[in-house]
Amino acid sequence: MVFSLLFATACNKDDDETPDPAINEAEVLAGYLESADSPLGKDFVSTDMPTIMKATDVKTLNATGEVYIVDIRSADDFNLGHIENAVNVALGDILNHMESVDLSGYQKVAIVCYTGQTAGFAASILRIMGYDKVFSMKWGMCSWHEDFAGKWNSNISNGHASQFTSDATAKGAAGSMPTLSTGKTTGQEILEARAAAVLAEGFSPAAISNSAVFADLAGHYIVNYWSEAHYSDPGHIPGAMQYTPKESMNLAADLKTLPTDKPVVVYCYTGQTSAFLAAYLRILGYDAKSLLFGANGMIYDKMTEMELTVFNADQIMGYDYVN
After folding, report:
1. Residue 245: pLDDT band by 50, 70, 90 thresholds?
2. Strand 108-112 and strand 134-137: pairing?
């Protein structure tokens, strides 16, 4: 009898940890994140995303103690120079850190990295988890002082300008969502498991260079994440499909047109908005990657000519920093 009881208990435990084949966890999670029951009470991707603040605003709020600054660069780089009052937290630890901080006295939380891209990735996950005060700092430390501007200055380029096209490519047919195996059944439980997993992976699997994309255009599903007008002019990467910010990436629109059998590369003007979206898509189980430095790294002069968002000397504030 004792053996039978132990066997039954073990079986029940196994059953609890086995994914329910009757549900698609990714679809449950997407529906939850689009609903009023989500941690933010709304569909972040279709409303506020991306939440980005300028270095000028960080400086102003820092002077009055109204911003909590989290610098996610390496400890070595943090020690070479950082914004006064910033705390250094590794990306993988950021959710645990935020859970330990009383943010009630702050108007905003600024996530800071080198270029604004990893910070966008982190800020997206924190927003999705309900931290509605979180913003990434635009352009990262490159905008704070010229001493840190090298990562942006060295990555603006016209290297693929001759390859951009105005020829449209239709989106893929709607299909199934990715397969997740957290073993959870509620949207909140699945979200907690997925957010932890994506943070543990870090930003590297979610980032890709323009050279890697152009070397294998057919091997990637390329999402042009800006307006339809700009999809035509200045154009887009050959084969890229146009998805409209705040409209396309939900269940009722085009989310299910993203494939589950190849990497989904998202690009925008600067790589900052695409980092927000890549984080969201990775939480849902897509192999999503943000194209580093966006169009600034491919068609910089055209972006400047059209007065679109570009990194230049005007973005470098020259603010003081501490070691």
Report:
1. very high
2. parallel
